[in-house]
Amino acid sequence: MMEDRRVLISGGGPVGLFCALLLGRRGVPVRLFDINDGLQNDPRAATTHPATLEVMGAAGLADEMARVGLVAPLFQFWDRPAQRKVAEFDHALLKDDTAYPYVVQCEQFKTSRILLDALKALPNVEVIFKAELTGLTQHADSVDAVVKIDGKEQTHRGAWLIGADGGRSTVRKAAEIPFEGFTWAERFLVLTTPFDFEARLGYCYRTYFADPEEWCNCFKVAADGPPGLWRTVFPTDNEASEESLMNDEAVQRRLQKFFPSDQPYDVVHRNLYTTHQRVASTFRKGRVLLAGDSAHVNNSIGGMGLNGGLQDADNLARKLADVITEGASDTLMDLYSLQRRTVCIEFVQEQSIANKKRLEARDPETRRQNLDELTRIAEDPVKARGFMQRAAMLTMQSRAASITLDHA
């Protein structure tokens, strides 16, 4: 029966769609449900690191991502109060480590669009929008998902269920998998503008500003074409009202404080979101598997969240296809959980927290040490390469591959 092999997926973002594509190409029947009425034009998550480009390239997708995005070989750190560039890193140092010695700034909705277009060639994959998963029941060799479509609940049976339905994952909650970690005290404010920070101020496409009062990330995306858009990310008071943070006067004041201009900024998008650092206690429970934000969330500094999710999808789909089509032991899915959860904690969580602390440090001596260390690393090719291997998530992928069930 088809249900003996079918994989159900909840969540039609890039991670769920990538799982569906990789499984579908291996001949696995897939049924994907998404609560929305179509792809979401989510402006978040643009940076695609070399390690993820390797995964996407193996699936034949990296070139298209570069075509609709921006290739960004450099990233910089600045000391904002001193208006001083502290360090610049060039991915060219990784030319012997990867076929992709650069980052591609490809917005999340573009990645989703590329994946959905690729899925159209697979008759064994169904994508059902306006379908909300509301519950699940596990059995010895299958799992039932309760899905609400057109106001009516239906039960869909599959051999496995993948939860790729975001940080508030219904799948994770229904499977009673704890989501361990904490929530940051401040929210992140994202302001998007066509102001050309490169031409006007000399910043590259990915720039990080350390400031004891209010750090900032500034990066460019292609948007709908030249000249592109720039996104700035700031920490904000968690107690302040949304209106007080996002009204026109407050937005202009914040941008002018950081980047003085003789003209008001044209702000085309603004968003305020709560930031968490959490990891599921397991990425597998019976026949339920978690990937992406359903399994782990982190602050956005360094752009590691969606990258980790797409790497989850690659690892999960390869192993699950072996189980379903090759008769491999389902202990492979325990290995998936162990590999991805371990590197999520050791790299994504650790690195994203360290990135934030580096930018927000207030103690003058700590700030000096942090910034001086970045300068020393950037000026030493050997140290810079090691730093970038980690930032590019290449070290993380190597670590994941080294983990076995016997030797974590």
CATH class of the domain at 2-72 and 105-182 and 276-359: Alpha Beta
End-to-end Cα distance, whole Å, is 37 Å
In what order do the strands lie side by side in the largest sheet?
A: 6-5-15-16-17-14-18
- Measured by DSSP, the beta-strand proportion falls in 25-35%
| Uncertain stretches of 5 or more adjacent residues | none
Question: Tally the helices: what do you get?
Answer: 13
DSSP summary, beta strand count:
22
Provide mean pLDDT, rounded. Answer: 95
Please describe the topology of this protein.
Elements: E1 7-10, H1 14-25, E2 30-33, E3 47-48, H2 50-58, H3 62-68, E4 70-72, E5 74-79, E6 84-90, E7 103-105, H4 108-119, E8 125-128, E9 131-138, E10 143-149, E11 152-158, E12 160-163, H5 170-174, E13 179-183, E14 187-193, H6 197-201, E15 206-210, E16 216-221, E17 229-236, H7 242-246, H8 248-258, E18 269-273, E19 276-280, E20 284-285, E21 288-290, E22 296-297, H9 305-326, H10 331-360, H11 364-379, H12 381-391, H13 394-402
Parallel strand pairs: 1-2, 1-12, 2-8, 5-15, 12-21
Antiparallel strand pairs: 3-7, 4-7, 5-6, 9-10, 10-11, 13-19, 14-17, 14-18, 15-16, 16-17, 19-22, 20-21
Helix pairs in contact: 1-4, 1-9, 2-9, 9-10, 10-13, 11-12
